[in-house]
Amino acid sequence: MTEKSQQTGPPGGATSVWLRAESGRARRTPPLSRDRIVDAAVTLLDQHGTDGLTMRRLAQLLDVTSTALYWHVRTKDDVLDLAVDQIFGAVRLPAATDDWQDDVRALIRNWRAAMLRHPWAPGLIGRPMLGPNVLARTEFLQAALVRGGCTALELAVTTRLLANYVIGAAVTEATWRRTADPQARAAARRHIAADPTAYPTLDASGHLDDARWSDDELFERGLEAILATAPR
């Protein structure tokens, strides 16, 4: 049995941590709590990424036994779901205004910023997103889109477009920032510019040229392009 699937806590049928009630035993085992576990998990994830988070390492950081840990969370998947929702809690919910597009812009910008502060988070989006922080922000996004005239299929498509866009942008930027040395992108640009015959369009468009367009500008332009396709 792998650590990811191992469970020693109370039994139950629901697979998602959000569909199971926290056990009474877990609520009565101070000083350990679910909030403290999630705080420690986020610390480990920020330091080591998802591969570096193990239940054993988490228990060691909390100075408890693995058995005590499993009374609060059954699996590593539980921990990851809880950690992702905590990151969403850091996505500031803007106050709704009369301009639905401004509301969408504010939320999506805040979402990107939160994911870039926690580079492991974008890769986990797509897991069952049922946490209260996730749902509150998705509700805000869809409510803004509905005020803009999106309904039915168009609402679902626009929601997915915006979510996939911000997640993809954060994955790309976070991966680059984590793995590339400061000179790598400039070297990549020189590689393209050195052979304009093979890559004429890439050379002319300034592909990978940070001096031409920053990630921030490209992100903002992409966001505006998506909003331009929504009903007005």
Please tally the β strands and state the result. Answer: 0
Nearest-integer average pLDDT: 84
- As for the number of domains, it is 2
Low-confidence stretches: 1-13
In terms of quaternary structure, the protein is: single chain
User: Which percent band covers the strand fraction?
Assistant: under 5%
Shape: flat
Fraction in helix: 55-70%
Please trace the helix and strand order, writing H or E for each element: HHHHHHHHHHH
Question: What structural class do helix, strand and pairing data support?
Answer: mainly alpha
CATH architecture of the largest domain: Orthogonal Bundle
CATH class of the largest domain: Mainly Alpha
Q: What is the CATH topology descriptor of the largest domain? A: Tetracycline Repressor, domain 2
What is the CA-atom radius of gyration, in angstroms? 21 Å
N- to C-terminal separation?
54 Å
The CATH homologous superfamily name of the largest domain equals Tetracycline Repressor, domain 2
Sum this structure up briefly.
The chain is mainly α and 232 residues long. The chain contains 11 helices and no strands. The relative contact order is 0.10.
Describe it for me?
The chain is mainly alpha-helical and 232 residues long. The chain has helices spanning 24-27, 34-48, 55-62, 66-70, 76-89, 100-117, 132-147, 152-179, 184-193, 200-205, 215-229. It folds into 2 domains: 17-87, Arc Repressor Mutant, subunit A, CATH 1.10.10.60; 94-229, Orthogonal Bundle (Tetracycline Repressor, domain 2). It has 11 helices and no strands. It is flat and about 65 Å long. It starts with 23 loop residues before the first helix and ends with a helix.
